[in-house]
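Example pasted here:
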Amino acid sequence: MKILIVDDSATDRMIIESMLEDYHTLTASDGLEAMQLIETTPDIDLMILDLNMPNMDGFQVIQSLKNNPKYSSIRIIILTNFDEIDNEVKGLKLGAVDYIRKPLNIESLRIRIDIHLKLKEVQKKVERDNERLDSMVLKKTKELIATRDITIHALVGLLEIRNIESHNHTIRTQKIMKMLCEHLKKKKEYKDILTDHYIKELVTTTPLHDIGKVGIPDNILLKPGKLTTEEYEIMKNHVNYGVKALENDLYDDEHIPSFIKTAIEIVGAHHEKYDGTGYPLGLVGESIPLPGRLMAIIDVYDALMSERVYKPAYGFSYTIEYIKKESGKHFDPKIVEGFLEIKDEILEISKRYVQELVKEEA
């Protein structure tokens, strides 16, 4: 434990220092010297501080320490004269933890110092324990994030193995989701909703939007032609399959992890339409969860721009005109507006990852 004794009286400094010979002590004759010592010896635990000093008085020292967070752990006992009650109150209000009056009562001062050093030791122990807990929490958080990401990649891998989706479709939709969200958050209506944390969840869970398709038979899923009415009804079940795959009876609504909630909203609502003609619930307007409204336009855009077993790739102009035409019908008009504002940047994502796919196949 290090104790700094600050007093312009050499006699008082000597008396206090001799009383504390079993501690590591430093001395200063005024506030300026004290601040220089603190700068070079940052691990001081306790300061015994006279208030009435030349150059820089005790009040100024306390205020300087208060203004610098790295010195907030130094406990200060102020020394006052017997009739300086106002100074005692002022010093305590500024941040001192205790006071002792002059002429010094050595026994009283020693008891108070011992008490505050014990409190400081307890404080240090709490800080060390908190650091260990923070480290453990950080480690567990990283493990949970890794587990989440591995699980998502494994689930998406099932789609890729069955040739339901390409790896580049996953990359494109994630990058478009990020770009669209980052753009929308600049707008007043989204700035408080699309936080950095929420955007990260949306981007991370985007690849799961069609995970339920693993439950659809190949003769329907990979059919090169148009689906019959009966086949289409079976295909629509992929939404419920995906939601059920993510739901877990171990969690109630209050304790379900937020990223699972986001994933369920993406999976369960990305085929809803703004005018209420979508599925599975026929939700209307903003009753459709935001992740579903975002995923709807991203998924349709990428589907139109990409070749599928049942259709060729359509051009960018056709795709943009389709999105414009479906504003207020299939898509949320506000999201369409934001999408169109960055359509050229989105096209660059499509071009980049289609080219990479061609290179991989070459």
Q: What stands out?
A: Residues 174 and 203 are 5 Å apart (CA to CA). The longest strand covers residues 75-81. The chain has two domains: 2-131, 162-361. Residues 355-362 have pLDDT under 50 and may be disordered.
